[in-house]
## 1
Amino acid sequence: MSQPIILIDEGKSPYSIITPVDAIPSERYAAEELQRYLERIGGVKLPIATDDQPVSKYEILLGNNTHLKILGLQVDLAKLGPEGFLIKTFNNYLVISGGRPRGTLYGVYTLLEEKLGVRWFTPEVEYVPRMRRIEISPLNEVQVPVLEYREVFWREMLRDADFAARHRLNGQHYHLTEKHGGRAVVFYPFVHSLDQLIPREICEKQPDFWPMISGKRVSGYVQRCLSNPRLVKMAIEQVRRWLKEHPEATIIDVSQNDTGSWCQCPECKAFDEAKGSPSASIIRFVNTIAESIEHDYPNVRVETLAYQYSRKPPRNLPPRKNVIIRLCSIECCFSHPLESCGSDDNRSFCEDVEDWRQAAPTLYVWDYTTNFAHYLMPFPNIEVLQPNVKFFIKHGVKGLFEQGNYSPGGNGEMAPLRAYILAKLLWNPDVDIQKIIGEFLNGYYGKAGSIIQAYIEMLHRKVKEKGVHVHIFDPPTLPYLDEGFLEEAEKLFDKAEEVADNEEIRFRVQVARLSIWYVKIAAKRVDGEERLRLLHNFLDIAHKAGITHINEWTKLDDWAKRMGME
């Protein structure tokens, strides 16, 4: 093991950052990010050079660097995959070498965060320590993510591609460019795609494309008759058009519309019943499309949903090797860990996870992490985030999509905290979650952080005491949101506002407090002049915070009118 190395000492440094001559954009950006943050930490801007220069005595070596070979260091990049990396000290050298396209960049962010204490709490709030001496202890560390696809679908993570990349998120919706190493997956379309695959105007001309329900063909926002051979042929043709029009796509989505209304014509029904699930018709349909493109597009996969009526896998009908199943947890209780919860919903879902694990060549999960009917309602799921992510990974899940409040204005209940926790878990499910929570609360809320933590703990304790199973469309009248809870929460938020470091942090506390006021307004816990006053104060803070939506379907101002604010 090498000795500690001193990168910067009292405003001086002999080090240079060395990139490969053939560095890809993300490796050049990794050098720039490292240069930028080391200067902010230690006050010295290290020069960036390329590996066609002679080896010097003090270097930070990035990527697949020829200086590594000259120094006798071997890095097995093949074992690191596209995102893994090695961080190693060697004599006076610091090595950060990762797979392409994202590994080296992720290695730089890991060094800054885990070894030097930089924290990216939100796109606007970060912590960069100042050090007179930057000393790196001996290191020989390899990290390779267990998940190939990581997407935290909260507005707080969607607003800034640099911020998402710093959290090593690689999903569809982050607008990641070449400098970030691009996206790990590029979908076309993105779920619920039957209306795009077989448009309604075509079904109007071909009425047997519509699903048969109770003996009649039914039109509108419904599924399709997936056993119809002409429809199957048309679907294959459409998928091939998509692939020509969107050569960047790595995953073609062929999935059910966001509704029930699936076909129960004699052929579809008989096949589903023989295979034990309405998913049978879907898997047969998707397998046929996947088989038709696998020779011409060997690097493209076809994804479909296991969602609501199609959640249970069919018997003896495995998806093809180039098919991804995305299983959805929409029915579950989220106040208890999936694996240990005694509810019928969670037990059934866990069985489906295990069954799909055995059947699917690749399993993704669409998970839900907020109340979609009440974005600002206290949602006691923070304590289950880690056990649920670990459960998925234990059962072979390779991609996680964590859906939260994705509305343009964001700022759902504890949204910045949840987005931060989820990002950390998707990279490393074994992270010290209490440390993560504590660091965020103290970094984002300052002196009020410990009080906000006391509030969160009280909320979760209340749910445990009441034995409540919490779902994602519950009303704000559940037993844990009783008068005692609201009264105690108000006291804690009073105290948090009192101790806030400054007006900016006090405003963050007030935004967090909106959840309590929301319950009082929406559940009609106050009336008359008190209700109007509270609603006015609520809207004042919500508008300043940029909140646009009160739930997945309703804008803030439309809700306010319904609540009595003209």
## 2
Amino acid sequence: MFKTTIKVIGGIARSAKKHTICYLAGMILFALFPVCSVLLIKNLVNHVMDLVQGGQPYIKFLWGVGLLSVVELLTQITKYSNSYMEQRLKAELYCGFSDKLLEKYVSVEFSCFEEEHSRNIIHHVGSAPQEALLEYFMTFFSLVADFIEIFGYVIVFFSLSPLFGLLGTGCLGILLCLNFKRVDMMAKLYDEQTDDERKMLYLDKLLCTKSTLLDLKLNDAIDFVHHKREALSQVIWKERLLRTLQSQFVYASGYMSMVLWVSFVVIYVIYEITHGRLSYGIVVALISAVQSIYRCSECMANDFALILRSGVNVRYLEKFMELPEVKKVKNGEMVDVQGRLQFHNVSFRYPNDPNEVLKDVSFSIEPFQKIALVGENGSGKTTIVKLICGLYQPAQGRITLNDIDIFKLPSQYLHKIYGAAFQDFSRYQFSVRHNVAISSVERMENDSEVFQAMEQAQASDLQKIIDKPVGIIEEDGISLSGGQWQKLALARAYFKKGQLLILDEPTASMDPKAESELYASFLKMMRSHTCIVVSHRLAIAKQCDQIIVLDKGKIVQKGSHDELLAERGLYQEMFHAQSQWYREKDG
């Protein structure tokens, strides 16, 4: 906790040094003013009693009223000043930290989004971790202020009796220790329930998303999903209820010590008053201090609980910032973008998966070649594409471009080489133009190039709404069909004009004829580019120079369509099976 506190304060202070100092000073003053008020009230009551008895002039009473008024005024000014500083700190933190956070998100290794432990960390961080930092920061200083205020009240009790001061300090320590245990119990529960929370969010999304809700309604499966959600909710609720009851019992034990101490103080004060050994001012001060110290101890316990809970979120943020990042090569070697791409005995497995997805894969792609990767689901086609794009590094072997390891190429240079359209492409709810030109934003206003890309993707019908918003974010957003979204994804890949075009089944929902025509048009226009096509439909492979057939992570065949069809093997079996399917469908 100490290290976390230092990191949080240091980080926020670097973003807003002046406002941090002002906020700290304000919180200290805000803690001291209530104690000053109690002491001033004590003197004021004594002055009133002296006036009643005729033993003191009015001037001391007026001075007491004036000082008390000044303290109360300063208290309010400090309160509003602290609120202002909170907003300034929030603004400074959002401005200074958001860029750093976004930079981290885009730099995290792609594998972290597929590995369970890392996904849990990203889930806990959420979309606005600045809130956790700011909450921790402000709660910590609120806790410091509580300590200062209680310390002032304890001094009042020490002046009455050292025994009461020591007992109060001990009871307060017991309360804080038990409260720490209570919060630790709840924090462990929240950590244990991370997986269940992610599943709950997924089920909620199923019941709130247009596409899935339509599918569930058509299949009369809403009750099924709802029951799964209710069952999971019951598990989470029961675990939290039990743990909450246990933690509250621990917390109540700590408060009992404070109640006993306050009871002793009240009994003592009553006894001393009946024997005339306490002045009225001290009695009023003690009663006020008892009420304030009880209120303050409750605030401190709550702040302590909050800072521990915020500390959990801050530690997740620390873990997030420590996630491995993609290694950026700033001054690597430059190569001819039209060079030979080669896999040298590449093997790969996904995080926490004991099985190899690729096993000793070797092949080469010559400049301007059109390559088809074919095979059943899970054969390793998409994994090869991810490796080529640099999203993963091979466990064994190398991937080279003109004999240079692609992971030694400058990052910005490497990204410009590829243009890609994937099956799970993004649907940006911006304008049609933005959906096409986001792959090369510097040419976004070039209408002729945007229109050309749309024509090649057979999306010319969308040119008339080129600058209209699509999706549901904007009030006048236009809804597109699945096929129209796919065409925009293909136009985006073409618009980038990367020297290596990768098409990983982005047209999966199109009918075979439309898909074949679209790919034929693309491959014709991309004669001056190298192309890699991933598809289940082998009719497309006929249009490629070389076909690589994968089975269970291994290359089992390589060659042209005619060569592979002439030899017995998996490709021949797949092609005849698909041909039979089309004949049956046509019949």
